[in-house]
Write a sequence for this structure.
């Protein structure tokens, strides 16, 4: 492990596993003396139950209210329900799940002794493998599959090697992003942050993850991020609430899977680009990890497009919005002061090492992830019969049953987080804040955990939080403040 990587991993806060807060959830598989209770809730009549739940989920209630109402009705954070997609064209999909909506019951999703994760990234339904080169890529594999070990190690190696160019590449691509935003501001007084942000993420992440530089291809450089947007959108539509006029959304977006051929041309362009420009990473996949060239290319594209670009696009938007005065008045001044005091305004001083000093910036990043986990739903299937423990009861789970956790609610568990609905920028500072990191789960594992081939935690767990901290530090080196409202920047005040 390079010195830089070692220091970067050291920068991941909260590696202590001590947990002294009163309501510490215990390790799931420990025997419990709590009463065994029948899992409340029901799946309803065949066809009708799943359809009714689907309409509530997408239309009448929306995901958060859907789960909240069922907690109230069942007087339990563990219950049976259906989740989409369902009838009419998802007949072979079983929508029955057991929802786990508090920190303690949700933690069972990380215990690979009792759950398995084959093909359950987005639930019982899985998008066609045509979207991923006719193969199951890493995120769909269970830890018991040898290929998962090879691919997880490959993904962590990719990140480790890229750490040498990560910060430099990021800052240089941020120069372009902020120049575009400033140009928009001078022309029209407002800049929608999404296009420049996505362009930045695509260019930066493509170089760091695949080694291919989009600037070698004018077409990929200009349109690469839009190709990924459509590829992502089309495969995930049956599971995502979009918010267009109903019942049009139910009829056209949630009733069937869009065929891959609609995005095939764009995807093939990205494959060709990686094959031609990402040769070093491909050769490493073949020689050091015993993968085929095809496996390497499609896994690189999935990591780039789905894991990294998809995750960061949602996360950075939430991060920028959380800086708005309407959400967190006065926070920019506090973050700026910390950045200027600890690092100053010289961008060459930005490093993973330097970010370790920014306690409030990192806490702000964690709090944004707590309230806006970019991957809100997590699933896992019972590997065997086992007993699932919540705070007041134990439930018997049968082998093969699917558990479903909705993180935006789990991360508001009042037994763990004080004032759980409030955005508290400093929540994760000091000793108590460090302990709370044991219960921050955005990466499919605790923030104090470590991704490995024997678990399904995000390979980039530390890179994601440090990259977000770097993004904020860079911003407050450039600007005294930005004015932001609903995803649009309307002013920036340059640093003096
Ligand atoms: C904000 C950005 C990101 C978020 C929110 C995110 C989130 C997640 C989550 C929740 C999972 C687990 C999904 C599940 O099994 O239920 C996951 C898995 C994974 N992520 Fe990330 N991720 C992000 C960025 C990245 C990046 C930059 C990479 C690497 C290049 C990456 C690589 C992976 C891989 C390889 C897996 C599969 C792990 C396994 O199969 O064991 N992610 N990510």
């Amino acid at each position: 492990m390079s010195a830089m990587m070692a220091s970067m991993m050291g920068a991941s806060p909260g590696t202590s596993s001590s947990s002294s807060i009163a309501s510490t959830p215990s390790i799931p598989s420990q025997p419990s003396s709590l009463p065994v209770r029948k899992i409340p809730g029901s799946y309803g009549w065949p066809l009708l139950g799943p359809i009714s739940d689907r309409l509530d989920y997408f239309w009448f209630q929306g995901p958060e209210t859907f789960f909240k109402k069922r907690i109230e009705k069942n007087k339990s954070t563990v219950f049976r329900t259906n989740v989409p997609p369902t009838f009419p064209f998802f007949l072979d999909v079983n929508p029955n799940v057991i929802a786990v909506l508090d920190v303690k019951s949700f933690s069972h999703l990380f215990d690979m002794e009792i759950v398995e994760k084959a093909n359950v990234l987005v639930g019982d339904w899985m998008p066609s493998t045509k979207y991923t080169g006719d193969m199951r890529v890493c995120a769909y594999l269970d830890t018991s599959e040898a290929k998962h070990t090879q691919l997880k190690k490959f993904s962590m190696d990719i990140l480790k090697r890229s750490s040498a160019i990560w910060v430099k590449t990021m800052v240089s691509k941020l120069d372009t992003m902020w120049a575009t935003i400033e140009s928009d501001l001078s022309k029209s007084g407002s800049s929608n942050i999404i296009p420049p942000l996505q362009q930045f993420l695509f260019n930066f992440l493509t170089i760091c993850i695949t080694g291919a530089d989009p600037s070698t291809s004018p077409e990929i450089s200009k349109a690469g991020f839009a190709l990924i947007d459509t590829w992502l959108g089309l495969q995930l539509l049956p599971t995502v609430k979009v918010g267009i006029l109903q019942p049009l959304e139910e009829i056209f977006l949630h009733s069937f899977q869009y065929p891959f051929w609609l995005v095939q041309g764009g995807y093939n362009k990205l494959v060709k680009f990686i094959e031609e420009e990402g040769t070093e990473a491909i050769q490493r996949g073949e020689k050091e990890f015993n993968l085929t060239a095809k496996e390497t290319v499609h896994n690189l594209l999935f990591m780039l497009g789905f894991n990294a670009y998809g995750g960061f696009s949602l996360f950075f938007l939430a991060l920028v919005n959380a800086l708005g005065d309407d959400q967190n008045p006065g926070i920019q001044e506090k973050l700026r002061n910390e950045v200027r005091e600890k690092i100053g305004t010289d961008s060459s001083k930005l490093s993973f090492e330097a970010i370790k000093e920014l306690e409030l910036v990192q806490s702000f990043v964690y709090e944004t992830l707590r309230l806006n986990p970019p991957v809100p739903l997590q699933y896992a299937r019972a590997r065997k019969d086992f007993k699932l423990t919540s705070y007041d009861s134990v439930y018997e789970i049968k082998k093969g049953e699917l558990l479903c956790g909705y993180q935006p609610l789990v991360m508001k568990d009042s037994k763990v987080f004080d004032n759980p609905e409030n955005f508290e920028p400093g929540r994760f500072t000091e000793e108590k804040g460090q302990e709370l990191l044991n219960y921050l789960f955005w990466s499919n594992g605790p923030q104090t955990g470590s991704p490995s081939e024997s678990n399904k935690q995000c390979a980039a767990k530390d890179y994601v939080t440090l990259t977000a901290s770097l993004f904020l530090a860079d911003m407050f080196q450039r600007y005294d403040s930005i004015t932001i409202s609903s995803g649009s920047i309307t002013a920036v005040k340059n640093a003096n």
Q: What stands out?
A: The first helix runs from residue 3 to 10. Confidence is low (pLDDT under 50) at residues 1-29. The longest strand covers residues 479-485. Residues 117, 121, 138-139, 152, 155, 159, 209, 303, 307-308, 311-312, 315, 374-375, 378, 442-444, 456, 458-460, 463-464 surround protoporphyrin IX containing FE (CB under 6 Å).
